[in-house]
Amino acid sequence: MDASTIIEILNSSVRLATPLLLACLAGLYSERAGIFDIGLEGKMLTAAFFSAAVAVASGSAWLGLLAGVVSALALSGLHGVASITFRGNQLISGVALNFLAAGMTVLVAQSWFGQGGRTPSLQAGARFTPVDLPFARALADTPVVGPVYSGFVSGHTLLVYIAVLAVPLTWWVLYRTRLGLRLRAVGENPGAVDTAGVSVIRLRYMAVAICGVLCGIAGSHMATALQAGFVKDMTAGRGFIALAALIFAKWRPWQALGACLLFGFLEAVAVRYQNLSLGGITIPVQLMDALPYILTVIILAGFVGKAIPPAAGGIPYSKEA
Amino acid sequence: MGAPGAATRGQTAPAIELRGISKSFGPVQANRDISISVRPGTIHGIIGENGAGKSTLMSILFGFYRADAGEILIHGRRTAIPDSQAAITAGIGMVFQHFKLVEPFTVLENVILGAEEGALLRPSLRRARRELLRLEEEYELQVDPDAVVGDLSVGHQQRVEILKALYRNADILILDEPTGVLTPGEADQLFRILARLREEGKTVILITHKLREIMDITDTVSVMRRGEMTATLKTAETGPEELAEYMVGRKVLMRLEKNPARPGKPLLEIENLRVTDDSGVERVKGISLNVRAGEIVGIAGVAGNGQTELLRALGGYAEATGTICIGGKRVPLSGPGADGGARRRAGIAHVPEDRHREGLIMAFHAWENMGLGYHDRPEYRRGIFIDNAALRQKTEGRIRRFDVRPADPWLPAGSFSGGNQQKLVIAREIESDPDILLVGQPTRGVDIGAIEFIHRRIIALRDAGKAILLVSVELEEVLSLSDRVVVMFDGRIMGERQAAATDEKELGLLMAGVAQGDPA
Amino acid sequence: MRELPQWVDVIVVPVVSLLLAAVISALVILAIGEDPVLALQTMVSGALGSSYGWGYTLYYTTNFIFTGLAVSVAFQARLFNIGGEGQAMVGGLGLALACLYLPLPHWILALPVAMLAAFIFGAAWAALPAWLQARRGSHVVITTIMFNFIAAALLNYLLVNALRPPDSMDPATAQFPGGTHLPTLADLFAVFGIGFAKSAPVNVSLIVALAACFGVWLLMWRTRLGFALRAYGNSETAASYAGISPYRMIMVAMLISGGLSGCMAINNVMGEAERLVLNATEGAGFIGIAVALMGRSHPVGVILAALLFGFLFQGGAELALWTSIPRELIVVIQALVILFTGALDNMVRGGIGFVRDVAHTLREAPERQGKG
């Protein structure tokens, strides 16, 4: 395996990790605030469709992104109404939203474009294209630095850089701002927030909204950067891998980056080598596919440091309790 | 509205004054026409049993509930408290019984939560640290600002709660059952802190059901009973006996006619029993006790002194250490064989204190509830099946014998009144033909007519030669039912008396934790 | 607001939820420029208008009865088993192994043996999530989701690499031997001289599914174990007072639930495909959630809800065939049913309570006026 192959795999790891990372951070905001969200998948899928659809119609990737974010926000709002206002079951609401997304995207796609539940392919202008960082050309021929900087660091789409920047930003918001303190508090003990005179409901809606925005970017990335348009069920379980990564990272931002890169890497390897052979042992591609889930179950089992979710997660808040 | 009367007389207005506060939840009147007035710079106690309406009153003061009628005056000014933010703004700080702390946060983070200055944490934290150190100094409330709250002892967590209130410039501090979770040492420290707060001019309202605390620390005291304020007194001019009388009240109870007990051999022998609850607090601290055939042993005590945990351990669903012998045979106290089913097979029946959460399944039909705890009994067992017909038949008989109304075995348990629910539980447990009956709060929330009925049944069981252990916070109930009375205080037995040879006064002192010979 | 009587919760809430779902679906159909009435007509005639349509409707119903029962049993013990899909896949694997490698000369013998294998495999796939919940407190929802994906990968691997006949390109097992073929409903009806569409896949599994409903009813409401399960599901504190072990209840409920999901394989794998193919479950495990919520976790409710979804599934296929409405419409309906019955149920209840109170006031108003 030569250096360029390695760079290539790393590149695709990053590309594939990006939607995972955005969705994972989305889930982090929501779950840190005490609202379980197994509907990440549905929000991504919805955003993927609407971003592609609007990008096709307008020829603008940015308008597509906006549409993706708004559509994911709408689903977040529904999740909020069900789980915050009406104090319903958050898990069931998440399941319902996933199905709603799976069905509606195809239905609307068929109605708008009539191509069997997909959008037409996006033209170059309607997609997010790779961005060359400064000096990428100039440094390309420098040994070591050149391939790494020009081949790996540079040349991704804008949304990839946004996702990577979202990690320190999330960390900063969570641990260095008033909003972060309150969000973390409301996921651990909403009673503490309420008796401190802060509205639990408003905070949780805010968390759910941030979750929607990030899922929206994640879905838009899939349809307008990673691929050129929407196809039926294109998220293919990535929302659940993001959920797994969130647990794997124990609900912490930097660890989320690590987990998503790992899972992105597994996917990149699985895509490139159908059956990876390592010193005589052939690792089937299906094992690579399942590895994120298997690793997460091992973490959940508590054999490698227990993953403890936010204490108030999943429980509707009432003052009397 | 003109200026409030107190202020015009040139005196300082009361720090807090309630006028005619009433609040009901559906048919339940939790607070009825409550009025109190607390002078600034004093400690005022509110005492009453569980369910007397103290917590509702507090929740109204802190903006959790809105009163149906009445008004609140803070420093003479009428103040609406629609939410917690308003209460905080009015200068009210609240220390809840179950702390409102974020366990993974540091002390500092907990203190500033909701009272941050600006969107960034760093400057807030810096300022709060200085302020916190000053408060700690001023009120002798030392805690490490960087300690993680979950790692702190309960006593220190409580200090954090007080600091939270002080940081928000509270000058009225309300504490709800603050010593319930504290060791005696920690409680003493808390009282020193409260005295210090009073010196600094703060007003403290202490809500408790412990007479001793009222006597130790308060200047004035109000007694609540069944939603009403039954008395407001100067602490110096009253004593635990009088307060206990106001608290327990004089219920119109018929004097129970019962024959003298003819106790036989001990059926239940408890030796050095210790029970620790889920949060790691030792609730029962080495209790030794015998109950003999044909006698009723009553456990008196203010709620929360370990009676609940004692019953749960005896009933098989709280782990314990020590020994329990049933009919001379030791039973396991933890691990396999330590569950409600095994205890029942050994001859124990149990009327739990909390019929809503434990004694009944509200969604189950009355007849299904007759199988709760007994579904594996031979009389209901037909191979892997359960004999529903037998259960229904049993239920019909029990409904008749215990006069349960409406006499409908198909009604869900939740649709019966409190008294009839309790009759269902008592019927099930008494008619399971136990050697030993544990009874917790047999008449809580039960109407007068049913109380007498239930009492007679318990006495009849005693006369049939069974051993009965009764736990009740109703002193009069314990006195009239029991043959022997044991008083529990802080997880220990404070004393034992023959029921015929003691009275409410003597027991009240023991319940207040005053050992014989101590000055009250 | 007063509490609603039980019959409202059992009957009115699901029916109102269904109506809400139907109205919204009709609006969706209108919005995409189609005719909702025509759509309904197409679905009814396609799913119920012929014995062929009925044959497919009942075939899907059979699948959903199994998965709906599975989710219901777990719900009764207050556990949310979202892993029916994975458990059904692995159940299919167990069934395929039994059919392929055990000597089963006649379906009378093959059915119980294969069903047992399917049950055991499905239960085994639920066992680890159950144990993790009971002993480690890991949320069963999260672990069963993970196990769905792991099951899909496992099956994919086995079908591609191990079970695929060497001469086939298809990721599927070989055809099951003839002795394991189940009689279709047409075969059974023929015995009585009743004509039924021969090409419809509905088979003897439907009868087994109905028997399973009876079995689950018997289990939950007539056995001591069922009593304990329901007691645990209704009140953990009362169960612990009664001496019912939470560990045992979680394990038993999840094993039965997983086993029932696995048993679906007798219909889709053994009865229809007669070999194990990729994605044989077609999402039936997830529809089980909607069926259980809609059927209020009761076997009778499950039968009715499964029939409804069977109708929707077949009707949806017809819709895709004859109109330009894709069959994903039924996924939307499914989502709305889950949303209204499972997550927005407080809203639905509140709405019903409000309507009742208003009606009550209106009815009393004239009387009061009369008196005044």
Report on this structure:
The complex is a heterotrimer of chains A (321), B (520) and C (372). Chain A has one domain (3-238). Helix content of chain A is 69%, strand content 4%. Chain A has 13 helices and four strands. In chain A, a hairpin with a 2-residue loop joins strand 3 (275-278) and strand 4 (281-284). In chain A, helix 1 (3-32) crosses helix 11 (238-248) and helix 12 runs antiparallel to helix 13. The radius of gyration of chain A is 20 Å and the shape is globular. Chain B folds into two domains: 13-248, P-loop containing nucleotide triphosphate hydrolases (Rossmann fold), CATH 3.40.50.300; 266-511, P-loop containing nucleotide triphosphate hydrolases (Rossmann fold, 3-Layer(aba) Sandwich). In chain B, strands 6-7-8-3-9-10 form a six-stranded mixed sheet, sandwiched between helices. In chain B, strands 16-19-20-13-21-22 form a six-stranded mixed sheet, sandwiched between helices. In chain B, strands 2-1-4-5 form a four-stranded antiparallel sheet, with helices on one face. In chain B, 50% of the residues are buried. Chain B is of the alpha/beta class and 520 residues long. In chain B, helix 9 (240-248) crosses helix 18, helix 14 (388-401) crosses helix 15 (418-430) and helix 15 (418-430) packs parallel to helix 16 (448-463). Chain B is built from 18 helices and 22 strands. Chain C is mostly helical and 372 residues long. Chain C has one domain (35-323). In chain C, helix 8 (205-222) packs across helix 9 and helix 9 (224-234) packs across helix 10. At the A-C interface, helix 3, helix 4, helix 11 and helix 13 of A face helix 5, helix 6, helix 13, helix 15 and helix 16 of C.
List the helices and strands and how they pair.
The complex is a heterotrimer of chains A (321), B (520) and C (372).
Chain A: H1 3-32, H2 40-58, H3 61-85, H4 90-113, E1 130-131, H5 136-139, H6 145-153, E2 156-157, H7 158-176, H8 178-188, H9 190-195, H10 200-226, H11 238-248, H12 253-272, E3 275-278, E4 281-284, H13 285-301
Antiparallel strand pairs in A: 1-2, 3-4
Chain B: H1 5-8, E1 16-25, E2 28-38, E3 43-47, H2 54-61, E4 69-74, E5 77-78, H3 84-89, E6 92-95, H4 107-112, H5 121-139, H6 154-167, E7 172-176, H7 184-199, E8 203-208, H8 211-217, E9 220-225, E10 228-234, H9 240-248, E11 266-276, E12 282-292, E13 295-300, H10 307-315, E14 320-326, E15 329-330, H11 340-345, E16 348-351, H12 355-359, H13 366-369, E17 381-382, E18 385-386, H14 388-401, H15 418-430, E19 436-440, H16 448-463, E20 467-471, H17 475-481, E21 484-489, E22 492-498, H18 504-511
Parallel strand pairs in B: 3-8, 3-9, 6-7, 7-8, 13-20, 13-21, 16-19, 19-20
Antiparallel strand pairs in B: 1-2, 1-4, 4-5, 9-10, 11-12, 11-14, 14-15, 17-18, 21-22
Chain C: H1 6-31, H2 36-48, H3 51-76, H4 84-101, H5 107-136, H6 140-162, H7 185-191, H8 205-222, H9 224-234, H10 236-242, H11 246-263, H12 265-273, H13 284-294, H14 299-322, H15 329-343, H16 345-371
